Amino acid sequence: MNVKVSKISNKKFARKLATAGLASSLLVLAACGDDVDTTAATTAATSADTTPVTDAAVAEGDIVAIASATPGLSTLVAAVGAAGLVETLQGEGPFTVFAPTNDAFAALPDGVLDALLLPDNQGVLAQILTFHVVAGKVMAADVTAGDVPTVEGSNLTITTDGGVKIFDANVVQTDLEATNGVIHVIDQVLVPEGVDVAALLATATAATANATDATTSAAGLF
User: Fold this and answer.
1) Which member of 37, 82, 104, 118 has the lowest number of beta carbons within 10 Å of its beta carbon?
2) Please, what is the Cα angle at 116 between 113 and 119, to 5 degrees?
3) Would you say residue 2 lies in a domain?
4) What is the mean pLDDT of each run of 10 residues along the chain (222 residues)?
5) Could you give phi then psi for residue 200, rounded to 5 degrees?
């Protein structure tokens, strides 16, 4: 499937987030029922304790600072940097970020993470990461079941029966407050349906082949 992916402008992203408040997010959450289509996104699962832990952040600061100081989120922090979203997530916000753990990224199909971190795929990486971001600061106590729009443009489906889930992803830690929003930790990476994973893997394979050819040529083998 050929999918056209546009790079996300940080300025446009920041303007969009700045104009959306907590009230609009909560209205969308409250208005939607439990009868929703959960096939809108593909998730990569990993084992995790499904009981959310409400915990204070280990440091004070913006979303990036809190994520950087939280154990198990280093891959996310690296991905935010590779996507060029650090400055945006350090902005005024507010933001609600559903943050996949390191194990969640490790559970992606082989080669996908490496492909996402390639410079040529920066736009796709930004698309995936902004699929984890909701405008406004939504604390765990304010979450209700339904669909909520993300900064990426697609909706997240939230259910609350037997614990809070985003599609099939479990929320395993909640309410890591930042100066410009809040982080809730999840055990899966959410991939919007517009992302072609097969195409990502093809990009990674081509990049590996090119690197091998360059190394071989430099060694004077051909």
Assistant:
1) 37
2) 135
3) no
4) 36 40 36 40 44 52 97 98 96 96 96 92 96 97 95 96 94 97 98 87 66 48 50
5) -60, -45
Burial of residue 178 (CB within 10 Å: 0-12, 13-18, 19+) is buried
Reduced to 3 states (helix: H, G, I; strand: E, B; else coil), residue 115 is: helix
Residue 3 lies in a domain: no
Joined together, the tokens standing for residue 214 give 């360059």
Q: Where does 69-108 show beta strands of DSSP type E?
A: 95-100
User: How far is Cα 32 from Cα 27, in angstroms, rounded to an integer?
Assistant: 9
Q: What CATH number does the domain containing 160 carry?
A: 2.30.180.10
pLDDT value for 194: 85
Domain count across the chain: 1
* Rounded Cα distance, 80 and 112, in Å: 16
Which structural domain range is residue 42 located in?
Answer: 10-217
Is residue 171 one of the residues assigned to a domain?
yes
Are 41 and 132 within 8 A, CB to CB? no
pLDDT at 106: 96
Bridge partners of 170?
165
Is 206 inside a domain boundary? yes
